[in-house]
UniProtKB/TrEMBL annotation:
Protein's UniProt name: Lysine transporter LysE
Membrane topology, from the record: Multi-pass membrane protein
Record key words, sorted: Cell membrane, Membrane, Transmembrane, Transmembrane helix
GO MF entries: amino acid transmembrane transporter activity
Length: 205
């Protein structure tokens, strides 16, 4: 391994971490699913966002102008789809079964459903790609001797590390909470998800 790519990889990992860490609908969804369905589903939720971040990072790193233009032009449609998806998630969280009831019924939400949902939700925010393009432009000097693949890998690792840490902390808290507590947290999460959706819809007006 060429040690000259290590600083670039670490900078990119920091970018991925800084994008994933702020509390938003994805973080809220990850917390809620970890509490309701366990760390495995919570981690799948977070990794869906991490893969989407890496894909946007790839588009930004390689400077795929046609894709950037397409996504930017479709920003309103994607934002509308993301807002409607958030409303559906809010409705599902509000009317969801308690963890024990869900497990007894069909095993609760499946990991690949959780992964796919947050992947699509993250990809529905094309503003993310503009952030990657701007940040990766500042790192362009390091790309003279290193493949953009190191930047993409760094973004994924940084984002994934955050989701591992968050799920680990929430997973420990889950063991101390009773079913009634989880129900109230799920209802609060549903209201916040609906609020995020409402804000996103307002930005389209």
């Amino acid at each position: 391994m060429d040690t000259s790519v290590i600083p670039l990889f670490l900078k990119s990992a920091l970018i991925g971490l800084s994008i994933a860490a702020p509390v938003g609908p994805i973080g809220l969804l990850c917390i809620q699913r970890t509490l309701d369905h366990g760390p495995r589903v919570g981690l799948a939720t977070g990794l869906g966002a991490a893969v989407a971040d890496a894909m946007y990072g790839a588009i930004g790193a390689f400077g795929v102008t046609a894709v950037i233009t397409l996504l930017t032009g479709a920003r309103s449609a994607l934002a509308l789809g993301g807002a409607l998806f958030l409303l559906w998630l809010a409705w599902s969280a509000w009317h969801g079964s308690d963890p024990k009831q869900a497990a007894a019924a069909k095993g609760g939400i499946r990991g690949w459903h959780a992964f796919g949902g947050t992947f699509l939700l993250t990809m529905s925010n094309p503003a993310t790609i503009l952030s990657f393009v701007a940040v990766f432009s500042s790192l362009a000097g390091g790309m003279a001797t290193a493949s953009p693949a190191w930047m993409i890998a760094g973004v994924f690792v940084g984002s994934a590390v955050w989701w591992f840490v968050l799920v680990g902390m929430v997973g420990r808290l889950r063991e101390r909470l009773q079913t009634a507590h989880l129900r109230w947290i799920r209802r609060a999460s549903a209201l916040l998800l609906a609020a995020f959706a409402g804000y996103q819809l307002l930005t389209l007006i």
